[in-house]
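Q: Structure tokens for this one, please.
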Amino acid sequence: MISSHIPLLRLHTKAAQVEVDAGRISNAMMKRLDLGKGDKWDSMLKGVQDVAGLPDPTGVVSYASQLDDDLELYRVSCPIGVLLVIFEARPEVVVNIAALAIKSGRPGVSSLWYGC
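A: Here is the predicted structure, written as tokens:
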């Protein structure tokens, strides 16, 4: 999709290899974090584009009623609460979750667990 990501992925791979060599992350973790492997990068971007193409979920009137003269009741969708997602180290998931949080108008809280 976007070819300008290749230098960034190479830099990311080098930095991850330094962490493996220092014993701070495992080879399995490095493989999981590698966005250049297979079609991870393209599928990540496709997921963001899919979310961007969804209709805006906020401001939708799902119910309206006139209760009295000059008194109307509306049920309108709006973001309430926080989007909380817990997952293992997968960088493409972070991007997809961020896209969903932005689209839904919700703040996001992210916690990454390195226990693998």
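A few notes: The longest strand covers residues 61-68. The mean pLDDT is 81.
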